[in-house]
Design goal:
416 residues, alpha/beta, Trna Endonuclease, Chain: A, domain 1, six-stranded mixed sheet
Length: 416
């Protein structure tokens, strides 16, 4: 295969620039950018580094609204530069504006170099027929299939400007308890009541606002079905002492509030205590979340895994900014082909407002995967009547699929 210099037009959507890099593995990338899209070029570079590809790249600046002629001249210069450096130039005219695409195509045709367009809907490369056949650099298979497995949640998210992607939690560990809750709805309801019911630990989901409040909470006994309580203890979610269940190991006396910094000689000791208190709080929050609905996320993750449609599935993964920025925890994220698969999971219930969540889900998924995203809302307690009609209607408008408990019997559910 020739040593390729890949010449690309950079626009807001970055996957159409990352995919050719994964497919062609060029010796050099030349990115034509405007001031608005320059940062996107940086995202692309970080993304292909995630796939362990390392090669030089170069940015060619364009005006804010490049004309056909400007783009044509810039691409011609890139072609000539690539040839002078011993590369075989290949032009991707997918990105940018329509005028930019026309200019890039004209340059490729004029200089008889390989070019292509990416058909994202059908997940295939289309030969521009401006020079040698695309097969001379890509091979006989023009689909995304040969290289799609090199894409991960990390590389797609990074390509779309997200800086931090965590590995998530080991969801399979908690599957037996999640299945028990699924198969015993009355006991599941009792477990939810013990957490968020009117007489539960945190009525209506209102959690303590400080560490002292958490200290009081973890000292309270939990009225939860015995079987669920024992299984939760087995998996480290709850603790049992004196025949009673607790969120964590009960703490003797009140837990100090270590939210503030200290400037005394005892600072290090106090900070160690602070870290212990923080760990207790996180453990308690996990128990509250799991037994009040997060178990459903484990069921959905297992369903998606068993269907065989997805890879790199992650539960409770943080995707956002690396240092101090927005860093949201997502329910389930994976990869389907070259697309992000984004799952939001809700327990549901009579008072759940699910329709407004659809737009939030749609927007959040697109910040991670751009237009390359499949979006799902999984609801355990399915709404009824008009609420159900409104939910499914809006979901259809946005291209979001609803997953309910009966769907778990259909392993072909995710087939396109």
């Amino acid at each position: 295969m020739p040593n390729i210099a890949l010449i690309q037009l950079i626009s807001e959507q970055t996957m159409q620039n990352l995919l050719p890099i994964l497919a062609l593995k060029p010796g050099k990338a030349i990115h034509l950018v405007t001031e608005k899209t320059a940062s996107r070029a940086e995202h692309i570079i970080r993304a292909y580094h995630q796939s362990r590809l390392y090669f030089p790249s170069e940015e060619v600046p364009l005006s804010p609204m490049p004309s056909v002629q400007e783009t044509h001249c810039s691409v011609v210069n890139c072609i000539e530069l690539a040839r002078s450096e011993g590369f075989s130039p290949v032009v991707n005219f997918t990105g940018g504006t329509k005028l930019m695409s026309i200019g890039a195509y004209q340059a490729a045709l004029e200089h008889q170099v390989v070019s292509f367009y990416i058909d994202t809907d059908n997940q295939i490369f289309l030969d521009g027929h401006t020079g040698p056949e695309l097969s001379s650099v890509l091979g006989a298979d023009y689909s995304f299939e040969p290289f799609s497995r090199s894409l991960t949640v990390n590389s797609i998210a990074v390509a779309n400007g997200r800086q931090r992607v965590t590995g998530g939690l080991p969801w399979k560990k908690y599957l037996p308890l999640a299945k028990y809750l699924l198969d015993h709805p009355k006991e599941e309801q009792a477990a939810w009541e013990s957490m968020h019911g009117q007489d539960g630990l945190c009525p209506n989901g209102r959690e303590p606002k400080n560490m002292r409040g958490w200290g009081d909470l973890i000292s309270k006994k939990i009225e939860i079905p015995e079987t669920i309580g024992l299984m939760a203890c087995e998996y480290g979610i709850l603790c049992k002492k004196g025949g009673a269940f607790f969120l964590t190991k009960p703490v003797e006396g009140p837990v100090p509030d270590f939210e503030k910094a200290f400037d005394s000689m005892e600072a290090q000791t106090r900070m160690r205590d602070h870290q212990t208190s923080k760990a207790i709080k996180q453990s308690a929050q996990f128990a509250l979340a799991f037994l009040s609905g997060a178990w459903w996320e484990v069921i959905v993750a297992d369903f998606a895994d068993r269907c065989g449609q997805f890879r790199d599935l992650r539960w409770s993964v943080n995707i956002g900014e690396r240092f101090g920025g927005f860093d949201k925890e997502e329910d389930i994220v994976g990869v389907d082909g070259v697309q992000v698969a984004f799952f939001s999971c809700k327990r549901g219930g009579l008072k759940s407002r699910l329709v407004p969540l659809l737009d939030e889900l749609d927007n959040r998924a697109k910040t991670i995967g751009g237009r390359f995203s499949r979006r799902f809302l999984a609801v355990y307690l399915e709404p009824m009547g008009k609420n159900k009609d409104h939910l499914f209607k809006r979901a259809k408008e946005l291209g979001i699929r609803i997953i309910t408990k009966p769907d778990l019997e259909n392993l072909q559910f995710f087939d396109r």
